[in-house]
Amino acid sequence: MIKAILIDDEEHCRESLSIQLEKYCPEVKLMAACSSAAEGLNAIEQHHPDVVFLDVEMPRMNGFELLQQFPEIPFEVIFTTGYDAYAIKAIRFSALDYLLKPIEKDELVKAVAKVQSRPVHPVNQQLDILLERLAGKPIGLQKIALPSLEGFELVMVDNILRCESDSNYTHVYLKNGRKVLVARTLKDIEELLEGHSFLRVHHSHLVNLNEIERYVRGEGGYLIMSDSSSVNVSRSRKDALLKIFG
């Protein structure tokens, strides 16, 4: 049984999610439905939940500020939020989970299943990444949390050399020679790294433009990266690549 607490200042949101959990997620036992972050903190101390469904925007103390009250986060976190593209991207950058309001049944069931299968709780470094992203810290200094099969990897964005698609997973190659299998599609990784110096040069390849050593001409051609690996360039993306390098 998964012990859960729901924290949301909007009554209809609390009622709706409570009903959905009871109907579609019988493995979840809702211990408390709280209308404020302060009430939520008391409920967490009392019930020691496995997961907290946490509204992002609340008066006096928002969801992010609530999490900052914990030296270590001893539970899973699933943010619930209305559509805010910037906040959502920041949450995804930290590899934390979120549900978009109004919450859909299938997304809720999927999020609960992830809680059951995840081997580790989130760490405060993930929250730090989230808060830095929201604060608009310099892009070059940012870390990204990459969800792996064992949990997640925290890496500096600038240390990512290239990414290669593997169906619903992505191989992320780092400058130190390590390779991380990430539980995200290449499209997901591309969206997360938008605004950094990365370019999709092939349907299977995303590269760090700063790590390109050489371009070899051909029908699409191919790139030689700083680790001496070669990456194919598709015909459809060749022009975009050449335009960047003049």
| Number of E strands | 15
Please name the CATH topology of the largest domain. Answer: Rossmann fold
Radius of gyration equals 20 Å
The biggest beta sheet is recorded as: 5 strands, parallel
- What is the class of the largest domain in the CATH system? Alpha Beta
Main-sheet strand order equals 2-1-3-4-5
The stretches of 5 or more residues where confidence is low (pLDDT under 50) are: none
The N- and C-terminal alpha carbons lie at a distance of 59 Å
Mean pLDDT rating? 90
CATH superfamily of the largest domain: Response regulator
Helix-strand pattern: EHEHEHEHEHHEEEEEHEEEEEH
Strand content: 25-35%
Protein name: LytTR family DNA-binding domain-containing protein
Keywords: DNA-binding, Phosphoprotein
Pfam family, one: Response_reg
InterPro entries: CheY-like_superfamily, LytR-like, LytTR_DNA-bd_dom, Sig_transdc_resp-reg_receiver
